[in-house]
Structure formats: C-alpha cells, structure tokens
Design goal:
Structural class: mainly alpha
Largest sheet: 2 strands, antiparallel
Strand content: under 5%
Strand order of the largest sheet: 1-2
Distance between the termini: 45 Å
Oligomer: single chain
Number of helices: 14
Helix content: 55-70%
Length: 370
C-alpha cells in the first residue's frame, strides 16, 4: 500500500521561489513608479492630444493665456496642498476667491463711511491687503470651527462655501462690478496691472505663483512648521505626544489656504477688470484635483510643491483644451468631476500597490512583512 502523497501547497508570495518574489518586487516597483509619474504622463498626453486636435492649442498667444490660468490654479492649489498634507480638505476656496473679487470691486468703487458722511477710495495696494485679510478671516473661521468645535473639515468648509458665496451676493446685490480701472483723480488706478501686467515680459500672475511656490517649498522643507505639518498629517496622535501643536498647525493651514484663495480671486478680478460674485466656481475642484494628481495623499502626511504645480498645469491645460474643442461648459464641469474621481481612484490604487511592494520586498529580503 503506497503512502498518500501530500498535495503541494498553494502558491503564495510567502512560499514562492526567491526568483519569482524578486520578479514580483521589480514589477510592483515599475507600477509604483508609473503611479508616481501620473501627473507628468497626464500632462504629456494632454499636450499631445490637444496639440494634434487644434493648431491654436500650442500657439504663442494661447500658451501665454494658459500660463496665466496655470498660475491662478497653482496659487489656490498651493494653499490647499498645506491643508491636505495636514489631513484635511478645503471646499471653500472657490467661494473665497469670488468673495475677494467682490470686496475688491466694492472698495475700488468707493467705501461709504456713513459716520463721516464721506466715501473712501483706498489705493490698490490697500485693496489687495484688505482682500487677502478677508480670505484669512474666512480661513481662520474654518480652522476654529474644525479645531475648537470638532466639526469635520468637509462639513466646515462646505458650509463656508455657501457663507462666502452668500456674502459675495449680499455685498454686490447679485450684480457685477464692470469697471475696476479706477480713476487718476481718486488715486486708485493700477488694479488691472495685477492681472494683465508683464514685468520682464512675464505675466504678473506667474510671478506671484513662482514666489508663492518658493515660499511654500521653503516652509515645508526648511522650517519647524513644515516638519510639524508632515508629522501631524502622517500620525496626529504620535505628533501630539511629540509636542507638535496640532490645533495651531491645523488652524494655520486654513488661514494660509484662505489667503491664497483670496489672492487668486483678486488676480481673476484684475485680469477681467470686473468682479462677479459667481467668480471662482469649481475652482475648489481644480485645486483638489491638482493636489491629489500631484502626489499628495488624501489621508495626509504626503505632498510636494513640485507635484502640485504639475497637477495645476494638467488641470488648466485640460480646461483650455476642452474650450478650444468647443465642449459645452456644462460638459466641462462633468469632465472635471470625472477627472477628480479618477484621480482619487489612482491615489487609492497607488497606496495599495505600495503596501504590496513593501510586503513583497520584505519577503525577498527574508523578513516577515509588517
């Protein structure tokens, strides 16, 4: 009687031959590398596709126009980047941008001082400072509501989206400020230069985006605040036990995000030399898409300025290409929403593949995976 043969064990990474495990680790490494380069791949695909479909897409005038749109998206996205690294979300940035433009229009048309029976016309620099202060105030309210009253960031900023949009409608009466050029005799001219000026042949919006990107990069990589931000976003409890002021960091990123959104709103109003309370709609989708596409993790603790800038390029060029193709505005919104969902799906896929790569690499090295 022959002894019963023991059936072979099912194949698994734990009992696979070392060569197969190593091959699997290399394959996963390549896949994760593609995930990391997804923003650059998307940017190259957009340039090639729309460049072939439209001769005007890569023309010099259109490139200049697209560069300004990239800069505006980047200014908002850089503020949202800090919020996402901290593990939060900011849905109010588009409405804050619209409110900022309306405040600029109101100030440039004259601020009525009833107690003095006079009308004040602030200089352009004063208008810009006050508009940014309005954005910072909105961000501060977001931060306080989230940290002090423990309201989830999604709900708090979603509420601020409506508050800021409603405030813009109340201030303007639902109308548009059509002429923001100012008057020489009133000393409030020059507002249009912020959106249409070109020092050294480069639009002002791009200079603003470059300076802001450099400042945020230094903040993240060269200051204790940057280290606190990554630590709190990666593991809030561990960061708190290490002495990181987690509530102050969270409030600060919302204040910065509000300031960036307000600055972008001023640039938009300046470029158009008019302000409307509906300006900035869907810009929150643009910013979140740019940040996540650029490599930031929705769970926090991860994100770079470079990746966000590339993501902003993708978002702006996609919108410009759709416009050149005469895609209806409503369908453009549909496409933006679909792209955002796809980007989040890619982020989740990247995280799964990274965990898989770490496990397989540990097996290849003879260690037990975590």
């Amino acid at each position: 009687m022959t002894p019963r043969e023991t059936p072979p064990a099912p194949a698994s990474p734990g009992n696979s031959p070392p060569g197969r495990v190593s091959a699997e680790a290399r394959r996963l490494s390549v896949v994760n590398g593609l995930f990391e380069l997804r923003a650059i791949i998307a940017l190259a695909a957009i340039v090639v596709v729309f460049g072939l479909l439209s001769d005007a897409f890569l023309s010099v005038p259109n490139l200049v126009m697209m560069s300004k749109h990239v800069a505006i998206n980047a200014v908002i996205a850089l503020g949202v980047l800090l919020v996402v690294i901290r593990g939060g979300i900011d849905l109010s940035v588009g409405s804050i941008a619209g409110l900022s433009g309306v405040v600029a229009g109101e100030l440039l048309e004259g601020l009525e001082l009833r107690f003095a029976d006079a009308v004040a016309y602030p200089p352009v620099w004063g208008v810009i400072v006050l508009c940014v202060a309005v954005g910072m105030l909105a961000g501060l309210v977001n931060g306080v509501v989230i940290t002090r009253f423990k309201v989830p960031p999604f709900i708090a900023t979603f509420g601020m989206l409506y508050v800021a949009r409603g405030a813009a409608l109340l201030i303007s009466g639902g109308s548009t400020y059509p002429n923001l050029d100012g008057s020489p005799e009133l000393g409030n001219t020059g507002f249009g230069g912020l959106g249409n000026g070109r020092p050294l042949g480069v639009p002002v919006a791009i200079w603003i985006a470059v300076v802001l990107a450099a400042a945020v990069a230094l903040l993240l990589t060269r200051t204790p605040f940057g280290r606190w931000l990554y630590a709190a976003g990666g593991n809030e409890r561990a960061a708190e036990l290490s002495g990181v002021p987690i509530d102050r960091v969270r409030t600060a990123v919302y204040v910065i995000s509000g300031a960036c959104a307000a600055l972008a709103g001023v640039v938009i109003a300046s470029e158009l030399t008019s302000a409307t309370p509906l300006a900035g709609e869907t810009y929150e989708l643009n910013a979140i898409t740019a940040v996540i596409l650029g490599g930031a993790a929705l769970g926090g603790g991860r994100g770079t300025v470079w990746g966000t800038l590339v993501g902003a390029c993708v978002v702006a060029l996609l919108a410009e290409g759709l416009m050149l193709m005469d895609v209806p505005a409503f369908w453009q919104i549909v496409v933006k929403g679909a792209v955002l969902v796809l980007v989040v799906m890619l982020d989740q896929g990247r995280r799964r593949f990274q965990r898989r790569e770490a496990a397989v690499s540990a097996m290849a090295a003879g260690r037990r995976p975590a």
